[in-house]
C-alpha cells in the first residue's frame, strides 16, 4: 500500500496528493470564501498558481501511471557480438542467414540487439535469448512501411532463444556498407554497448493515453483548481510537458513521439507494449532528431511471437 493510500484511502483528492508530496498552494489555507476566489483571479499569482497546479497534476500522474522500464545508457566499453548494443556485427545461428530486404535483395543492418540473459526482467518480456532488430540501408525510411507497419519485408526482428557461450567467426556477420548506404548510424564501424538500469517512468504528453490520464486527475481536483486549469490550460500543459519530457534508449515504459502517436487506430490498436525505443542520441540520428519505436501486443510478447511487431519512427 502506498503512502497516499495509507494517508487518504484508495482515492486521494488532488489537494491530498499535493500535501503528501510537499506541494504547497501559494494561496494560504486561511484565505477562504470570496477572498479565495479573488486570490485565484489575481493576475500576479498566475505564474505561481500555474506551477502549483502543474506540480499537483504531475504528482497524481506519477502515482497513477508509473510503469517499469529499462533505461539503456551508452558505455565506453566496446561491445562484443552478444552484448546489448546498437549497431555492429551480429551473431547468425546455424541454419540461418543474415537477413535481407525482401524487395531489393540487399542486406539488412543491425540497428540494435537485446541480450535478455543480461538484462533486468520486465513483466511479459523474455528472460533469456537475443532479440535482434534489423533495418534497411537502401530505403529512405529504413524499411518502415507507413501503411503496413507490421510488414517485415524491408526490416526484420529475429529472436534467438539461446545465447551461446562463444561464437565462432563463421557465425558472425559484419556490416558491409555501399556508397549509397543510408542508416541512422555514423559509419559501418559504429557499435555501442548499452548498459541497463531498471527504473519506472510516468506517462508523457506524447502518449495517446495521456489525455485520459489527465482527465482522471482533473476529476479529483476542487472546482477552483480545475477552473484555473481550464482558464490557463496552455501554460500549464507547457509546464507539465517540460516536467515529463524524457527520451533516450529504453525497453518498456512509455514511448516518445516527435509528431504524434499512431497507435489509437488501424493495425496499431492494442500494440501498447514498447519493445524498444532508439532515440537520436549518442551519434545515432533518425533524420531530424527522430525517435524509432517498436511495439508489440502483450499477448504476442508473452508467446515470444515477434511476427506482428510494429515499427515506427518520426522526426521533427
UniProtKB/TrEMBL annotation:
UniProt xrefs under Pfam families: DUF1963
Alphabetical list of InterPro entries matching this protein: DUF1963, YwqG-like_sf
SUPFAM superfamilies to which the protein is assigned, alphabetical: Hypothetical protein YwqG
Protein name listed in UniProt: DUF1963 domain-containing protein
Organism in which the protein naturally occurs: Bifidobacterium tissieri
Taxonomic lineage from the root: Bacteria, Bacillati, Actinomycetota, Actinomycetes, Bifidobacteriales
Amino acid at each position: 500500500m502506498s503512502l497516499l493510500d495509507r494517508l487518504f484511502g484508495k482515492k486521494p483528492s488532488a489537494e491530498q496528493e499535493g500535501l503528501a508530496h510537499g506541494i504547497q498552494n501559494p494561496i494560504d489555507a486561511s484565505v477562504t470564501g470570496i477572498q479565495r476566489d479573488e486570490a485565484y483571479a489575481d493576475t500576479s499569482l498566475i505564474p505561481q498558481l500555474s506551477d502549483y497546479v502543474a506540480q499537483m497534476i504531475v504528482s497524481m500522474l506519477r502515482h497513477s501511471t508509473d510503469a517499469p522500464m529499462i533505461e539503456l545508457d551508452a558505455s565506453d566499453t566496446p561491445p562484443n557480438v552478444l552484448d546489448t548494443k546498437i549497431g555492429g556485427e551480429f551473431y547468425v545461428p546455424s541454419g540461418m542467414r543474415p537477413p535481407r530486404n525482401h524487395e531489393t535483395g540487399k542486406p539488412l543492418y543491425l540497428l540494435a540487439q537485446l541480450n535478455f540473459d543480461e538484462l533486468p526482467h520486465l513483466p511479459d518480456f523474455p528472460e533469456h535469448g537475443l532479440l535482434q532488430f534489423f533495418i534497411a540501408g537502401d530505403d529512405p525510411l529504413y524499411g518502415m512501411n507507413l501503411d503496413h507497419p507490421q510488414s517485415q519485408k524491408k526490416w526484420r526482428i529475429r529472436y534467438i532463444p539461446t545465447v551461446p557461450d562463444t561464437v565462432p567467426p563463421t557465425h558472425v556477420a559484419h556490416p558491409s556498407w555501399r556508397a549509397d548506404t543510408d542508416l541512422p548510424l555514423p559509419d559501418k564501424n559504429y557499435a555501442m554497448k548499452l548498459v541497463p538500469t531498471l527504473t519506472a517512468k510516468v506517462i508523457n504528453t506524447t502518449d495517446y493515453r495521456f489525455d485520459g490520464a489527465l482527465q482522471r486527475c482533473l476529476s479529483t481536483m476542487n472546482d477552483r483548481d480545475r477552473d484555473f486549469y481550464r482558464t490557463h490550460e496552455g501554460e500549464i500543459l507547457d509546464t507539465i510537458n517540460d516536467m515529463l519530457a524524457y527520451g533516450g534508449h529504453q525497453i518498456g515504459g512509455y514511448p516518445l513521439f516527435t509528431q504524434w502517436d499512431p497507435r489509437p487506430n488501424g493495425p496499431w490498436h492494442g500494440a501498447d507494449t514498447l519493445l524498444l525505443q532508439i532515440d537520436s542520441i549518442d551519434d545515432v540520428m533518425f533524420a531530424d532528431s527522430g525517435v524509432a519505436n517498436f511495439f508489440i501486443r502483450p499477448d504476442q510478447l508473452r508467446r515470444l511471437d515477434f511476427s506482428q511487431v510494429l515499427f515506427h519512427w518520426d522526426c521533427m
